[in-house]
Amino acid sequence: MKRLKLFSSVVLFIISMTFNSSCSKDDKEDDIDTTPISLYVGDQKEIQGAKSLSSANDFIAVTKDNTIEGFHVGKTRISVNNSKSIDITVKSIHNLYDDPVCNWGCTMNEVRQKQTQGKYSSRSDNDALIYENAGGASFIMYSFNNGSLKSVGVIVSTNHLSQFTDYLLDRFLMTTVYYGKDTYFAGIDGSSMEIAKTFVMMEVYNVDYMIALYTPVSKTPTRSAQDTSYTDEIIKEIKNRLQL
Question: Based on the domain organization, do 77 and 130 belong to the same domain?
Fold first, then answer.
């Protein structure tokens, strides 16, 4: 009888400890704040109560232990302890001009609706939309092929060289590219070519201007939008239209 009472007491104790432990764990989970977070590139934020974090897009935000860090401009979601999630928005303090419309294949009307910065230029035609004095950009030119967006050219004064570089670094994974005697600053808006959508290439055109060319990332090895001959062709078109 005494043994039965002792056994019953032990069982009740184990059940009690298990229940309390479960409640304690649930309470800690409930304490995690899932309010959306806004960060600037380079900023960090600790998540209290987080034992593990994972980012849905490491190009935008990275995680280490219980800390989130803004990596590039964009929006993503962070998983906390594999049970909760937090929406993350990463912004930049370097906003030389509004990000151009890079919805590749979209129509002129779609670009007109979304490009609200700058003055519409009379030099626009059926193949190109041109905007003047768009923030820190002297010109933004959208080029179309059969009515579909194929590239965006942005002209910026060399007076903004440092700010322009920071602007691109906050939005693209950039590197220096050497081609013959020419040097380019180029990058993609993703951690790899497989997931990136936009390729950007910046060059100093002369003592007055720099040109940034945005094109879609090519998924095939044949006709690549990143081929120098192809990008040179588009840049030549931009220079001729804008009479640079």
Answer: no
